[in-house]
Structure formats: C-alpha cells, structure tokens
Amino acid sequence: MTTGYRATKLGIDNSLIEAGLNYFDLMLIHWPMQDDLGTYRALEEAYQAGKLRSIGVSNFNRAQLGEITANFQTVPVLKDLAAKYDHTTAQVMLRYLTQRQIMVIPRSTNPAHMAANINIFDFALTAADLARVQALDEKFSLSGWPSSMTLDEDY
C-alpha cells in the first residue's frame, strides 16, 4: 500500500521492475487515503512519462473527485461532455455506447443510479463529441481480442 507522492512514485517504479514491464495499462488510487493529491501527482507524472497508459481513482465521493480534477491536468474528456449535456459522465458513456449501437448492461443496486442509467435518451452526442470519446481509445490490446470486437471507424 502506498500513499503520498514519494511512496507512490517509488512504488510505481518498483512494480514495473518486478513485473518486468515498461508500463502498466492502468493504475488507480483504490480509495481515498491521507495524501491523495500527492499520490495522484505521482500517477500523473508517471502517465506523462509513459509509465502508465491510464490513471484514475475508485471509491472517491464527489467532493474528493472534485479536489483531484481541480488540481490536475489529466482528467477525462467525459467530464467536459457531461457539463455540456448537463448529465453525468456515466450517462455520457452510456449514451455514447447506445449511439454506437453497442449493447450495454450497466449494473447498480442503487435506485437513483438505475434511474439515471435509463435517463440517457433526452440528448444525443454530436458527431464531433462521438469522435472525442472515440479518440480516447488508443487501439492497443495485449493480444487475443476476437476480430468481432474491433469497431469500425464509421459512426
């Protein structure tokens, strides 16, 4: 377990060495700890150095997530789209997938989240916004994806 800038920076480097890899596809702060800003700063620097392909957080509440997004450059395109369409980032992603005719099976036991998951048909992403989300896909896979999983470039 690492928390704070120095411990996280060292932990990333040590983990890469132990795994024999040049980068990790994803690294998250699993839950809020004592120094989330320092921890996220280490993640962002590793992302910018190419050691991490994606970074993020898990189990953060709205205020904690707001603190991260207010202090760092590496935040999702989805946040901008959510503000533009006055919906949540989850709703934007669900709408993106349904507009692309990709089957979605969201999971929630929270009635408010279930209602939000259904409430995605009162807006449509523009072609430009669809392209912004599509551009997040780095089209990189370790291996073994069936050809049927490859998406066309056409919308």
Task: Describe what this molecule looks like in 3D.
InterPro entries: AKR, NAD(P)_OxRdtase_dom_sf, NADP_OxRdtase_dom. Keywords: NADP, Oxidoreductase. It holds the Pfam family Aldo_ket_red. It contains seven helices and two strands; from the N terminus they run αβαβααααα. It folds into two domains: 1-75; 76-155, no CATH class. It is globular, with a radius of gyration of 17 Å. 48% of the residues lie in helices and 4% in strands. By secondary structure, the protein is mostly helical. Helix 1 (5-19) packs across helix 2 and helix 4 (77-85) packs across helix 5 (89-99). The protein has helices at residues 5-19, 36-48, 62-71, 77-85, 89-99, 111-118, 127-134, and strands spanning 27-29, 55-57. Strands 1-2 form a two-stranded parallel ribbon. Helix 2 links the parallel strand 1 (27-29) and strand 2.
Characterize this entry briefly.
Belongs to the aldo/keto reductase family. Keywords: NADP, Oxidoreductase. 48% of the residues lie in helices and 4% in strands.
Helix-strand layout with pairing:
Layout: H1 5-19, E1 27-29, H2 36-48, E2 55-57, H3 62-71, H4 77-85, H5 89-99, H6 111-118, H7 127-134
Parallel strand pairs: 1-2
Helix pairs in contact: 1-2, 4-5
Which key terms come to mind for this protein?
155 residues; mainly alpha; 2 domains; 7 helices; NADP_OxRdtase_dom; NADP
- Categorize the overall geometry: globular
Report mean pLDDT, rounded to a whole number.
Answer: 84
- Beta-strand percentage range: under 5%
Number of domains: 2
| Radius of gyration (Å) | 17 Å
Helix coverage percent of residues?
40-55%
